Amino acid sequence: MIVTSKNINKISEYFFSKKMKYINSLEKKGKKVINLGIGNPDISPPHEVINEMKKASELVNANYYQSYIGIEKLRYAISDWYKKIYKVNINPEQEILPLMGSKEGIMHISMCYLNQGDKVLIPNPGYPTYSSVSRLLGADIIYYNLFEEEKWLPNIDFLETINLNKIKIIWVNYPHMPTCATINIKKLEELVMFSIKHNILLVYDNPYSFFNKENNHFLSIFNVKQAKHVAIELNSLSKSYNMPGWRVGMIIGHKKFISNIIKVKSQMDSGMYYPIQIGAIEAMKHNYIWLKKLHYEYARRRKIIWKICDNLKLKYKKNNSGIFIWAKLNIENDIIWTETLLIKNYIFVTPGSIFGTNGKGYIRFSICCPSKILEEAKNRISS
Ligand SMILES: Cc1ncc(COP(=O)(O)O)c(C=O)c1O
User: Residue 239's closest CA among 260, 199, 209?
Assistant: First the structure.
């Protein structure tokens, strides 16, 4: 038998990867499952994006290996986008590293900065990939609690009580997945100050930024003046422009960080398909009108999910941000509750406890599902 690495035993297959196999098996038996589990935007990106990508695919150089740091035009487009959307200046030559989705960036950053036995601060609840990647690298995880009573925001006084020796990275993500909580600049400042004080790399994971506005612009960690000393930001076009399958993400940060991360990334891939980069450039030209339409559609969908929650007697907040609705059950066991909904009603929603112990007793609905199907889900539950 060929034995796996020790670290592989510390993780298991991604929850959604396993779940989708089960859902596919149900569908093969003729059951029509309504998937409200995954945040997989279903509305098309702006049609100009697809047109530009198609045209670019006819070019001979589209088939070549591409630059390890993204084509120049893409980095300049990202820099312009940051200026327009977040009101921050980012140097396109030194401070941007395009990625094939921000998820891979979690691995690159961790490989770049973590040694076996180093510690990382991870939100509970939070995106499971932070923990899995840390485990794969043999790092020790210290979870920091997020509680509903504290609006799911990090408690800096509590963070100060932790033994911070050997903490290398703190992962922070707002609008928060899965709770849909938002953050303000003041709290971001506190987090940056905490990271400077303790010399911790703050990774701000910002894929839902289009759902968090303050002072008339969307929030980036770089809205905090001193952030470039200790912080890097992961961003993505997956949710902002409905391009999750295209795999376009980015790391933004001071060149001292980017130049280190390139050492890892350039060993992992050989550049992003040229037409995708051209499509991404086009996408970032679409801002407020595009978003207005998107938010309008999501608002319609939210109302139907609220009705589903009301019918199921679940508690939720109407000011939830992002592309999910986070709801509280009136029982503890979210795993059994969601399994029952799947088996009885063929509706898949995500149990909160897959995001950490503080997600226990909650469930997450995705709003990436057309209203007509959401209505059908509502009817299935009521009948
Ligand atoms: C919090 C968070 N970070 C990162 C990602 C990765 O997004 P992508 O790889 O599509 O850019 C996701 C995806 O769902 C997410 O929810």
Answer: 209
Regarding whether 343 and 305 lie in a shared domain, the answer is yes
Select from 248, 245, 191 the least CA-distant residue to 219: 191
Q: How far apart are CA 173 and CA 305, in angstroms?
A: 24
DSSP 175: S
Best residue among 180, 236, 240, 354 to mutate for probing ligand 1, ranked by most atoms within 8 Å of CB: 236
Say yes or no: 320 and 272 in one domain.
no
Task: Establish whether residue 105 lines the binding site of ligand 1, counting it when its CB lies within 6 angstroms of any ligand atom.
Answer: no
pLDDT digits (tens, 9 = 90+) for 340-365: 999 999 999 999 999 999 999 999 99
Tell me the mean pLDDT in the region 91-115. 98
Which residue puts its alpha carbon closest to atom 5 of ligand 1?
Answer: 103
Residue 259 sits in the same domain as residue 318? no
pLDDT of residue 14: 87
User: 178 CB under 6 A from ligand 1?
Assistant: no
Q: Which residues are CB-neighbours of 26 under 8 A, at least 6 positions away?
A: 33, 346
Instruction: Identify which of 17, 171, 204, 238 to mutate to test ligand 1's pocket (most ligand atoms within 8 A of the CB).
Output: 238
Tally of domains in the chain:
2
CATH of the domain at 237: 3.40.640.10
Please, which pLDDT band fits residue 216 given cuts at 50, 70 and 90?
confident
Distance CA 35, CA 41 (A): 12
If you measure from the C-alpha of residue 129 to the centroid of ligand 1, how many angstroms do you get, rounded to a whole number?
9
- Which tokens is 303 given? 């109302």
Mean pLDDT of 15-38: 94
CB neighbour list of residue 40: distance below 8 Å, 6 or more residues apart: 244, 366, 368
Question: What pTM, to 2 d.p., does this model score?
Answer: 0.96
CA nearest neighbour of 101 among 314, 246, 270: 246
Q: Is 238 in the pocket of ligand 1 (CB under 6 A)?
A: yes
* Distance from Cα 102 to the centre of ligand 1, integer Å: 6
Characterize 51-61 residue by residue with b for buried, 16 or more Cβ atoms within 10 angstroms of its Cβ, and e for exposed. ebbeebeeeee
Question: What would the two tokens of residue 171 be?
Answer: 């992962």
**pLDDT for res 320:** 83
